[in-house]
Amino acid sequence: MISKRKIHFKFLFCCFLPARDIDIHWWLVDLGLQQYTDEFRREGIITMEDLKLRREVTTDVFLKDALSMLPGHRKRVKREGKYLINILSSLNFLQLS
């Protein structure tokens, strides 16, 4: 079964909203992890396009050391980050220049 979160982001991509226009804050809010918004921005991850380009975001080392995330939060970000990176990569042709 597809979660509401995945439906939400699939809807955005189906509407041709470029990843560079989706603020990372809204993804974190959707995950219930908005308290990490400032840490992501400090690391230069401001939009979903930044997330796609920074694949190390889905590694434990980055999430633990750079963002000081709790283990359960790291697991959630890794799972959803990998999912979204795959979608963004496969829908790359939809990105507007």
Give structural notes.
- This protein has helices at 4-14, 24-31, 37-42, 48-53, 60-66, 71-90.
- Helices cover 60% and strands 0% of the residues.
- The protein is globular and about 30 Å long.
- It is mainly alpha-helical.
- The model has no long low-confidence stretch (mean pLDDT 76).
Low-confidence stretches: none
Global outline? globular
Mean pLDDT: 76
Summarize the main sheet.
none
Order of helices and strands: HHHHHH
Q: Assign the structural class, choosing from mainly alpha, mainly beta, alpha/beta, alpha+beta, or little secondary structure.
A: mainly alpha
Rg over CA atoms, rounded to whole Å, is 13 Å
Helix content: 55-70%
Through-space gap between termini = 33 Å
Q: How many separate helices?
A: 6
Strand content: under 5%
Q: Could you tell me the number of beta strands?
A: 0
What's the quick description here?
This protein is mostly helical.
Topology:
Blueprint: H1 4-14, H2 24-31, H3 37-42, H4 48-53, H5 60-66, H6 71-90
